[in-house]
Amino acid sequence: MGLRVTTWNVNGIRNPFGYAPWNQKRSFQAMFDILEADIVIMQEAKIQRKDLTDDMVLVTGWDVFFSLPRDKKGYSGVAIYTRNAKCCPIRAEEGITGVLCPPKSTTRFRDLPEDQQIGGYPREDQLLGIVDEATLDSEGRTVILEFPAFVLIGVYVPATRDDTRTDFRIGFLTALDARIRNLAAMGKQVILAGDLNIIRTDIDTAGCADQLRKEGMTLDDFLSTPSRRLFNQLLFEGQVVGQRDQGREQPVLWDMTRAFHPDRQGMFTCWETKKNARPGNFGSRIDYILCTAGMKDWFEDANIQEGLLGSDHCPVFAVMADRVRHGAENDSHIADLVNPVGMFKEGRRLREWTTRDLLPQSAKLLDEFDRRRTIKDMFAKRPAAPFKPIQQQPATEPGVEFSIDFGKSFYIQVPFTATAPVLSSTPSATPPPLTDFFFSSSSSSSSSPSPTTMSRTPSNATPLPRITRAPPPPPSKRAAPNMTSQSVKKPKTTVVTKDRGKAAPGPSQSSLRGFFKPKTPALDTIDEETLDGEASGEGKGEEEEGGSPARAKAPAAPSQAASSPVKKTSISTSQLDGIGRSPGPGGLPHDALADGKQEMAAAMATAPDEDKVFDPIESKESWSKLLGKKRPAPLCE
């Protein structure tokens, strides 16, 4: 379905929630889903700014624009809700004359630069001058939104309640007529929607003939009232008695509901609640959706929804087709015409709506609602941004270069004078040359080099010989112990597999012993003790100091496990002095290898632990002695 525009005088913005079906979920989002609308124009909100609440403004998936009365409480008020998934306005204004100012600004709308204003503001010679322009826009009666293809005017025209409001009513209608005609003269398409409080002709009200007879009026007199005459001069096929007024010689708008139902009787949108006139359909049609001639063919349906309760008015809707003819161009998708450039193309969304698309007039940017979200918005899925690799920039000055290999090569190049590193995720076929020195930290149980390498490459350095620690010898296999004839469960051994492309894991928590080991092992003497396996039956290898993973242990005889002494391996630091003190051709100071030498010494000094195999029979008996005793119950004092 295309774009659906709905207008509804709700007679209080919360009033519909007292009726079915709105009282089931009591939320604006559910209301709009029932209406199946993409743009909703509400009249008679009857609130002030201080009455705005989260459920009115922070509607998930919707943006909203309000025009509320400045002084009067519980009076008038217009709101326009737009569905973010279907449309997004590019400009917004409050008021019909352009004398109001945008939020947080002292510049009037009509004084803004041309690229920031909607335009078409009434001139002084087009206004009657009876009522001040600021007064006309002070009652919260007009919200204007501009889309790339048209201008939408949501309006609530003053009603004729007594003679004191006649001047205000005519002054407002005159300004509205001038604004629409000026916009049309600029070449812009216009949609006027809302409660106009005007009965167009006798077919649009119940009992018109009887009422005229009682008042002694003719149909021409009925059509010649000031507001009705002005309205009919604005419409195509409007009934105008006599000559048209100066400046209103040509009609501008089409009545879309009547265009689709030209002879329909009883198509009323408002009923008097005090007389309970709605069940008998004794009402009038005063709610309209009008459009300029260039948009008439865009609509494929328009009607009223008299079955929906919640107010003394009923909703009126009009639906635009999916594809429409816009000017001299070929058929365009409606989504391309009601969203900013670059958001849709041929009906396909190119980018998602974000808060950056909010206009300054949006109620979501009011101080009390800005930077706030609903719970649904917080957990809503955002589309992932497309990955754009950052190209590696060539180093123009000497610096330090690190390379970390996790299946792919990632290089971080930090010049000596740079303030921030340049990251690159582009896989490299050949890593940068290691010129000064090369340090490799390898696991004690694997002969493959570590994936983490560090190199320092000055510009005028000569390569040094690579220094690596020889891989430790594989643990010798021991003969399996002679098992007794009793049925014994095979002890479980842990096999630790290592991938070449993964970094060495840190110390595991297989035993509590790792928490009591010193974090920095001494370089002079490194002790390795074997656990007494009498109370533990896990059969897991002990963790090495320095973060190397535990090795899988082969079974050993119980006698060997019980009598194995504590082994001590002593390595002097002088054995490693030659590594750091041998100067290379590049003249690299030995202090650069200080950190690497300590880690190499700690890793090389770690000798393989004595393997330990626990006798399952002995372990079972020890647990039986511990848990099998019958302990006396405590005595009560």
Automatic annotation (TrEMBL):
Site (Important for catalytic activity): D287
Site description Transition state stabilizer, residues in chain: N197
Source superkingdom: Eukaryota
UniProt region (Disordered), positions on chain: 440-637
Ranges of Low complexity composition bias in the record: 440-469, 547-565
Binding site for Mg(2+): N9, E44, D195, N197, D312, H313
Polar residues biased stretches: 566-576
Single annotated GO MF: DNA binding
SUPFAM superfamilies: DNase I-like (SSF56219)
Annotated cofactor note: Probably binds two magnesium or manganese ions per subunit.
CDD domains per the UniProt record, alphabetical: Ape2-like_AP-endo
Compositional bias (Basic residues): 627-637
Pfam families in the record: Exo_endo_phos
Protein family: Belongs to the DNA repair enzymes AP/ExoA family.
Protein name: Endonuclease/exonuclease/phosphatase domain-containing protein
Organism: Cryphonectria parasitica (strain ATCC 38755 / EP155)
